[in-house]
Amino acid sequence: MDGAGEDAPDDGAAEAPRGDWFVQSLERGFSVIKAFSADEPELTLSDIARRTGMTRAAARRFLLTLVDLGYVAVDDRRFRLRPRVLELGFTYLSMLRLPELAMPYLSELSRDIQETTSMAVLDGPDVVYVARVGGRRVMASGITVGSRLPAYATSHGRVLLAALPDDQLDAYLAGTELVRRTARTVTDPVVLRERVLATRERGWALLDQELEEGVTSLAMPVCGATGAVIASVNIGAHSSRHTPEHLEEVALPLMTDAVQQLERDLRLAGVRTPGHPLL
Question: 135 and 66 share a domain?
Answer without folding.
Answer: no
